[in-house]
Amino acid sequence: MIQSLMQEVPLTLNLVRERVVRLYRDKRVATRYAKAIETATYGQIVERSGRLAAALHDLGIRPGDRVATLAWNSQRHLELYLAVPCMGAVLHTVNARLPADGIAALLAHAGDSVLFVDRSLMAALRGLNLPPGLRQIVVMNDRVADDDRTDSELELPLLGYDDLLAGANANFDWPELDERMPSGICYTSGTTGAPKGVVYSHRSTTLHTLACLFADGIAMRERDVCMPVVPMFHANAWGFPYAAFMAGASLALPCRQTDPESLAALIQASGVTMATAVPTVWLDFLQALRSGVIARDRIATLRRIPMGGAAVGEPLIAGFADFGIEVTHCWGMTEISPLGLVNVRKSALGEAAAADARSTQGLPIPCCDLRTVAATGEEVPHDGATPGELQIRSPWAADAYFDGDQPGNRSQEAAALEAFAVDGRGRRWLRTGDIATIDGHGYVRIVDRAKDLIKSGGEWISSQALEAGILEHPDVREAAVVGKPDPRWQERPVAFIALEEKGRIRNVKAVIAEVRHHLSSHFAKWQLPDEFVVVSALPKGNTGKVDKSALRKGRHANE
Amino acid sequence: MIQSLMQEVPLTLNLVRERVVRLYRDKRVATRYAKAIETATYGQIVERSGRLAAALHDLGIRPGDRVATLAWNSQRHLELYLAVPCMGAVLHTVNARLPADGIAALLAHAGDSVLFVDRSLMAALRGLNLPPGLRQIVVMNDRVADDDRTDSELELPLLGYDDLLAGANANFDWPELDERMPSGICYTSGTTGAPKGVVYSHRSTTLHTLACLFADGIAMRERDVCMPVVPMFHANAWGFPYAAFMAGASLALPCRQTDPESLAALIQASGVTMATAVPTVWLDFLQALRSGVIARDRIATLRRIPMGGAAVGEPLIAGFADFGIEVTHCWGMTEISPLGLVNVRKSALGEAAAADARSTQGLPIPCCDLRTVAATGEEVPHDGATPGELQIRSPWAADAYFDGDQPGNRSQEAAALEAFAVDGRGRRWLRTGDIATIDGHGYVRIVDRAKDLIKSGGEWISSQALEAGILEHPDVREAAVVGKPDPRWQERPVAFIALEEKGRIRNVKAVIAEVRHHLSSHFAKWQLPDEFVVVSALPKGNTGKVDKSALRKGRHANE
After folding, report:
1. What CATH number should be reported for the domain whose range is B453-559?
2. Which residue out of B174, B314, B379, B460 is catalytically annotated?
């Protein structure tokens, strides 16, 4: 047996950091703080990251230690994205929308040693039982005034971020890392139970970043100015910060200002070409565009919106197309770093097939294999009709959940073990919990969360298929269908809908009748919702997704 | 220390093969044989690859064994590209332009067990001392007639390729491979000495393939129809076959028909959008376009030419731009799989800077780090002026040359060891032997092969800089400058030039005077060539590159 003779170059984020130094020092990051837009060059950010790493080293941070952030999308958060993994430590991005006790629980579970927190989020920490291992809090955004260096309620010394950098050595000696070292921790949003930790590696994150630059995918380029609106604590802002570094694209970070006017101001000021956020953000934005609240010429540079986080309806795609902006449907999850599918048009598709395909979640990006599996464990055919559970195999997919700072640290809980499957060849697959069909071209259509299927009379009803049908009505703004317990059928579907303004003005009853009529041409009678409840807005969870459990419990605002 | 918890999915070409099966079965490969164009779908090719792997297994081929090809660019060669590495064996693509004894030497050095040979190349094998380890020859292109199953001169049984497939099991069980297993062997062309073997791994080839799809690089897409004219025995046809599989692009393979009319016919028949070959092929093609021998509308689909293998002159770039075809200057070498640099325009460049940058070899693709190093071993500044030896560090760069089928198989020869360097951090770099400058934006300009620098009076003269200057004259078609031994100055530059037809008609002496005048405004007097020799064409080596050693020995055809 002969040996291959190629260089052993580990796939680590230091390749990305060094690339920025060599090629992209002049590219820019703009952050829209509450009062002003601040900009810095990548050269400055890399230099500051070096100081940050040196300061963290002085605070005792060593390879493998966890450093937490509780922060919105900002330049300083970006500096932590570079410094912490590249020095061998692990970046734990805590969801700032969690309740305060949830935050404390995650800091303890991850075993964080240092916490970086936005000044605007400090209030959430007061009165909490912070874990004993947390030995330092660093406050971001502003310099801390001298009389504010301790916080009696927190009983921890406070440092100001810029003070920390000002005192640090500028010549940090970045270590050589192994590609399988952990680089980051992100917890799932916990909409389906307690948050579960995913531990990324340098290898997984570097490969995922390279895949984000795939020409038939996100295709980020040096000429792009990229605005990730999705939070940097949510699955690494869908990988966009690292992708921007590798591609040399400039970044525009909206901090927490995600209303249409704030986003338009940032797009205009920075020349944003590509932006990403969940559909609810874009629904508001599109309405502001249509109503003229935001003039199209203010956002003339915006060309592409890779959109995910929830199903993207055809009206949203068509609505942006009217303004010359291409919406690309994407799909992923925290467990897969998060990108798995991107909807690009295959060259063989005719117009009708292409129109049908573009509302699917898309095609797998390279090195991301997937299959759909029946309850029997058998793969189902790729016929565009047979649903099965979507399972993923990829170098950037999770193999286990995190059991906290234990030796081995793989969660052995029954719930966690059920999230992974093994095929006949002994290969491991992530069970996504999504029910999908795959058509002959490879387009994946998520038809439901496994737990969101409505079981009626021994049959399944797809809540997502009903929602998609309801959303085809031009006066419907949002829709969610949930199962209501039923003594005879076990469950029966109930639809909750929020209307566009003109729908409310016109005649709510007429709109519902039209929706019902439209559905009846696509669904069997027994599949149709028993009730239509009109609400002012659907309740959202802390990641902006519709909170179906709230709907099931009747927690919604009727119109 | 916590562990990362991501899936262990090895980076092997089976990921590429499985992707083709899942997504791209309907894409097509067209091969232009001497008499006709044959087409097949990717689905058929993968199915035939499975049969091929089963047949090779029946012939005794096991993981690590070497399987050689002596073949032009064809569908069957492509099937070998899939079958051999994906079954764990090692594909040795032998340069069909080598002299016959050179071929035999490489078959012996690599320890090949089976050889696949194009029928048109069989003649080269007769009368050779084939190595004893070679136990089977398979003839490609045609079915072997019954009376042709042995070849008395070869004393080896012959098999026909399609007979081999017809008798093979269709359900080959592809093995799970380790990503560091060898996948292929390619020998350098040996223009600078004996051919040196490079042993690629599944990891290096898979990562290189992913990098070929980089949006700011080759950016191959599913909608593309890609025509690699560069031979599949030459650095994996620059990685285009595997890239086409991963991207789902269709392929058009010209076999050995690389004259303008043959290429135009294939472009027209297959709708080629992207093609790649060395500049000499494109010089002929451009002339045929200009003269109207090839009508532009026959090749209307052709949009992009990633071009490399030799410096690409500005007139060639501008010439194709006149026809709406974008030439992208690329750079690589067998030792780096082979892609390292792609010339894309950075957004910050003004028109003048962009014009200057586009004749450079370009910017490094992701995960390909580079530096320029002085004779002292120190890195030189990236100022666009200070030359240094270009060195590469990448997961797809060679770490050693191949010592044949020995344990360890790393060549320990002094010449081979000098091809690699170690930096102060213990990291290994490939020494390219090219002298380059890097400017502040990161653009790399190869100014010379180290061995092509002309040493005159203790100073260096860059032959490539002189060649680039000479090529700026519109009547000059090709140029090469070599050092002529000189008793006083050690060496003095001599320029060999081939003229465009209109230059020959006009007045050869006037053209030379104009060239000399032009050079004198950019070079010191002592740097100017002592002589200008007009030739009908420059001599080429077996990869189409200018053979400077032939020029030094006076082997050229004067006009």
Report:
1. 3.30.300.30
2. B460
Cα-Cα-Cα-Cα dihedral sign, residues A121, A126, A131, A136: positive
> Quick one: closest CA in B to A10, which residue?
B395
Distances (CA, A) of A234 to A69, A95, A204, B43: 12, 7, 17, 39
- Predicted ipTM beyond 0.90: no
Which pLDDT score, from 0 to 100, does residue B300 have?
97
The Cα–Cα gap between B67 and B112 comes to: 6
Burial zone of A35 (CB within 10 Å; 0-12 exposed, 13-18 middle, 19+ buried): exposed
Which tokens in the block code for residue A247? 């591609």
Q: In terms of C-beta density within 10 A (0-12 exposed, 13-18 middle, 19 or more buried), how is residue B4 classed?
A: buried
Instruction: Give the domain ranges of chain B.
Output: 17-357, 453-559
Residue-wise pLDDT for A357-392, tens only, equals 998 999 999 999 999 998 788 999 999 999 899 999
Bridge partners (DSSP) listed for residue A216: none
Q: Are B448 and B435 in contact (CB under 8 A)?
A: yes
Look up the pTM and report it. Answer: 0.88
Provide the 3-class DSSP secondary structure of residue A221.
coil
Instruction: Tell me the CA distances in angstroms from A168 to A50, A56, A57, A164, A414, one per residue in order.
Output: 9, 9, 10, 7, 46
Q: A290 — phi, psi (to 5°)? A: -65, -40
Architecture of domain B17-357: 3-Layer(aba) Sandwich (3.40)
Tens of pLDDT, residue by residue over B309-344, are: 877 888 899 999 999 999 999 999 999 999 999 999
Q: Which residues of A have a catalytic role annotated?
A: 188, 335, 455, 460
**A425: which chain B residues are within 8 Å (Cβ-Cβ)?**
176
List the CATH code of the domain at A13-357: 3.40.50.12780
B183 touching A (Cβ < 8 Å): yes
Quick check: is B451 catalytic?
no
Who's near A193: CB < 8 A, 6+ residues apart?
A415
Lowest mean pLDDT across A261-265, B286-290, B473-477? B473-477
Nearest residue, CB atoms, A2 vs list B22, B90, B213: B90
Tens digits of per-residue pLDDT, A442-476?
999 998 777 777 877 766 688 888 998 999 898 99
Nearest neighbour of A1 by CB, restricted to B64, B202, B204: B64
